[in-house]
């Protein structure tokens, strides 16, 4: 698990090393009555190191990710996370608190509001670690290694408001990793970036030693061999309609979009 796990093991509960996500006929309907996801049954195991989720806007990608990471409860059916052999139910408050420790959430370039109040991004990440009584030497090692990996060292003393889009995306990922989760669940972690910045963020994310489950519209990204995406889900009409390899998924998705376009002209 690397340096961060070693650091946290010394003074805190042993970090989770592997997580299995299980959805059993799980659905979510929002309070306004809009369906986010129809009944979905699937499992994502630790062997699925890089899982992409693709689909049109409004198809249900974000709802699926939020069910996986516990941000939304299942309206019907169930969601279960099994961490190192122990089952957790995100609908149970005590379990959800534990889940938030071993599943890191990334929402595009969104960072905690508190980060904008801190004098610098280094202090922004340091403050919650300090609040959890992580010793200073460990905090500095965690921040130093995160900032080195995500190319944030040169702006460590800058306030969050001074960062460009690429650096905000990188900081959002680094923030999610600060407590050494076993898995990152990321909703469009390269959204809005140009091709060069997107590649930089993707390389930093996928070269980090964590399981990653992420949503994207970038079909080129998921088929590039250097990112080693091994499984892709296609979501359409609030259903998971395809589950397979990236290249097969992109072919399926392209045909789906073409069929929609042809139908719209008829």
From TrEMBL:
SMART domains for the chain: AAA
Residues in the signal sequence: none
InterPro entries reported in the protein's UniProt record: AAA+_ATPase (IPR003593), ABC_transporter-like_ATP-bd (IPR003439), ECF_ABC_transporter_ATP-bd (IPR050095), P-loop_NTPase (IPR027417)
One Pfam family from the record: ABC_tran
Name assigned to this protein: ABC transporter ATP-binding protein
Record organism: Bifidobacterium moukalabense DSM 27321
UniProt keyword terms in alphabetical order: ATP-binding, Nucleotide-binding, Transport
Keyword Ligase part of the UniProt annotation: no
Record GO cellular component, one term: ATP-binding cassette (ABC) transporter complex
Family: Belongs to the ABC transporter superfamily.
Domain ABC transporter residues, every copy: 21-262
Domain of life the protein comes from: Bacteria
GO molecular function, one term: ATP binding
